[in-house]
Amino acid sequence: xxxxxxxxxxxxxxxxxxxxxxxxxxxxxxxxxxxxxxxxxxxxxxxxxxxxxxxxxxxxxxxxxxxxxxxxxxxxxxxxxxxxxxxxxxxxxxxxxxxxxxxxxxxxxxxxxxxxxxxxxxxxxxxxxxxxxxxxxxxxxxxxxxxxxxxxxxxxxxxxxxxxxxxxxxxxxxxxxxxxxxxxxxxxxxxxxxxxxxxxxxxxxxxxxxxxxxxxxxxxxxxxxxxxxxxxxxxxxxxxxxxxxxxxxxxxxxxxxxxxxxxxxxxxxxxxxxxxxxxxxxxxxxxxxxxxxxxxxxxxxxxxxxxxxxxxxxxxxxxxxxxxxxxxxxxxxxxxxxxxxxxxxxxxxxxxxxxxxxxxxxxxxxxxxxxxxxxxxxxxxxxxxxxxxxxxxxxxxxxxxxxxxxxxxxxxxxxxxxxxxxxxxxxxxxxxxxxxxxxxxxxxxxxxxxxxxxxxxxxxxxxxxxxxxxxxxxxxxxxxxxxxxxxxxxxxxxxxxxxxxxxxxxxxxxxxxxxxxxxxxxxxxxxxxxxxxxxxxxxxxxxxxxxxxxxxxxxxxxxxxxxxxxxxxxxxxxxxxxxxxxxxxxxxxxxxxxxxxxxxxxxxxxxxxxxxxxxxxxxxxxxxxxxxxxxxxxxxxxxxxxxxxxxxxxxxxxxxxxxxxxxxxxxxxxxxxxxxxxxxxxxxxxxxxxxxxxxxxxxxxxxxxxxxxxxxxxxxxxxxxxxxxxxxx
Length: 729
Fold this sequence. Notes:
This protein is of the alpha+beta class.
């Protein structure tokens, strides 16, 4: 709900549990007055205090009024060069060479429905589900105009923000920064949580109090990256899973980004989030506009767990465009760790047959099926079937897989090219590389310049015959290196700062066209695992391979960190062979299955080599996942313990919307002799209901289970897993 109080020039956004407010202050400065738990309303600008602060300048219009300073007041969208020394949201170089942007209020309007961003991902909602507030700001001297867009999804406690910048002047200007989000907080102690890591160990939470100065996270890799995720949280120091005020900030963007928080000299705080300015400079000719990516905010007065569940519901219902929505997705087997590049039609057919016998429903052929692709140094870009490996092409293999009662899928990496490929020999200028410089390689490959339309057209025309194969149901879209040597032959020297963002726009266009031409295909995103696990990609690929690390114990940490924002149904998770390829660790097949079930679930191993007991365990796991599919994929998610803290087990839980069913999953730690007894305390149950556990005869009150707990049987051995299914009588 949006309230416009024109008498006081106060604009208030309400969701079910939060309130967000701004006010047009003196001299037309748009001030931020409040974001927090829901209030009845009213003008909250009484919270703002004014004082003469030394070395904090005053606007020219203020004359000798020394108590009004952009440097001390909370603003809705802070600019640079006009007296605010804190983190800016927008920076520009104007035609006269100055870098002064001074934004003042120029109008506002509200309308039903949710705004859209052409060419960019965004949450979607109908007129009955959302409202939009548009606020216009203008720098009178240059004609630069900024439109702030706010989407309010009231029932989901979600407020989205986006920004359009228009050059309303008569001369070109250069944007050096156009952040999607600027959020000021009045004096308060806050902790910043970022989600960091590396390849094969992504999105591990890191929490620290905001100190004086600037801290944050970001990526300059041309991708959102394994190292840092474009989601952060700010919360009260004592906030935990179930208590305390928490704010989430999510950027819907798949390229280089920056999220920075500043605690200033007066203990006010500011969060700025958007495209990373280090790799961005955009020229706007007169009349042209630039649209920044969307950001999405959640305020939870009830701890981090409630914040996560709000994001999960909003992403599932208003971001994912899943062609199989409403249907149970098939359990898959991916050929990579079973065969790598060493396969032919016969070995794949045998692997598929073994998988079908166990109940697998989707067979995915990974890397190595095209061109001269016998290793990772050749063939990328040549998207035609290698008929020496696959006589009869995809059609024959697809028919064989379908005859076994399974769907069929393939792997592609369209954004990259091998130097040893027909494509590179014909169009070496299509790779990102600056003149007179040999480009750096990553995984022995180069990056195609998909900011160029002719490159995108070629990729689509090359993929079209493959994606048109009858029976193809699934595509894994991979990207196995970051961007370097960023220079495009299609742009002038003055516009090379646009390449990284144009690359991301080109990627989005490619994926959207594939979706439109092949609406039945489920596309799973991947970038060396979790290197591009972000909400921007989820708009086009409704699930993403969570990490190349399939070790179940490492996955406890990876999936835990991912769950702070992203829902289970988006996390690609597989059972792989042991000893694990990434860590050398061996854990039971049962444990590997329980962990992978907290994702899209599948297998990445040669199941034909499994013994009778393992084969029966795989059958049991598949039946169990199918039985609990809706609960796992769409239930409310609760983190019961943290795998980053010592304890007898790592636990998590899914609860149905009516709270009558719940699935508790647990993995113990290393075995200890004569260990203490342990109990688990489920969450989210109906305190007045009686629950039966795993179909046993006894029933237990919901409040007793949540407060007193349920005793766990002693476990022998390291990393044992078990599940508790709770059903209300």
